[in-house]
Amino acid sequence: MTWQLSPCLRKLNHNSCCIAIGKIGIKRDTDHTNLRFYQFVFCAGLIAVSAILLCISAIGLSLDGTDEYPWAHGSSAQFTQPEVQGRYDNYAGLSGFVTTWQAINTTDNTAILNEVVPISWTDEQCILQCCGDCHTASVVSVSLVFVAILASLPTLMCNCQRASADSDDNVEKMLGVFGGIVCFACTLTAFVVYYTMCASKLPETTMYAYKFGGLEIPVTVKYSYDLGIGELSLIIATVFQFVAVINQIVVQTPEEHWGEEPDDNTPLLDKKEQDLIKELAKARKESRRLQKEQEKNKAKGDDLKLARDTAVNEANEAATAAHRAVKHLEEHGTKIGERQKKLDAAKALEGSLLHHENLSAQP
Question: H/E/C letters for each residue in the chain?
Fold first, then answer.
């Protein structure tokens, strides 16, 4: 999906600041069209998923959903008596915290106590020292989360718009970069504010009392806190937004948007001139394509020349080796002939001696 820039944004597109932002990054050639498309579509998916994660974290704004979507979770499982096993959970969210007490008689596995107590940060029953800080942190964090959600929409649209080089321009990159930075900064700040002002200050030790056998037994519980779904969602969303911002920065806009703004006072071109301009643009595009093919063919020719030279060298080496082998065979044949002559001479001499001995032996 593409759309036309408004006259105000069209002028801003040729602003020196926007042009400088558009030139930042790596140039994408026509051969990398598919890579550019999949790259921006992937980052658009990251922005969409991060917006969903931000919405999930905002569910903790309801006190009723705090135990299911907490921003911080503290738990403790311990034996408070030989026959009793207790589990205690403390869920902290944006509106308050929810404490659950569960005690079981281990002899017959019957529930002694199963109580859920939700308390708002602004409630008079909230006697924790961190109630005021947690309320302030929750207000700041949820405000930043909503700002990040609102900024995700134009950032997502800019990623979709820049997926094609024909619809990419300097304004789209500027909006995508600044929108992504706003999303990233708000999400990261929301996490840091809540963690430092609230989650890190939640009580690690709390005393409860439950009735067992007609007695009210005080129990000191030590909590071990972990990140809740809300804060984990913010961490993942922050990583996704960071990747999307980097992608917006490293991809340049097309060079035709780096020039000055066309003068509106110039007369409109007639149809023939417009057709000539289009043909010229096509010819330039075809020339760039042919140039790339020529470079590829030249590289292939160099490879073929190298292969031919290698083959010629190998053939020369093989011919030299064959010549040496033939010469060696000739020398070997000459030696064999000489040896044969010597053998024949020896046989002739031996025959002559035998004949002489036979003649001498006759009466």
Answer: CCCCCCHHHHHHHCCHHHHHHHHCCECCCHHHHHHHHHHHHHHHHHHHHHHHHHHHHHHHHCHHHCCCCCCEEEEEEEEEECCEEEEEEEEECCCEEEEEEEEEECCCCEEEEEEEEEEECCCCCCCCCCHHHHHHHHHHHHHHHHHHHHHHHHHHHHHHHCCCHHHCCHHHHHHHHHHHHHHHHHHHHHHHHHHHHCHHHCCCEEEEEEEECCEEEEEEEECEEEECHHHHHHHHHHHHHHHHHHHHHHECCCHHHCCCCCCCCCCCCCHHHHHHHHHHHHHHHHHHHHHHHHHHHHHHHHHHHHHHHHHHHHHHHHHHHHHHHHHHHHHHHHHHHHHHHHHHHHHHHHHHHHHHHHHHHCC
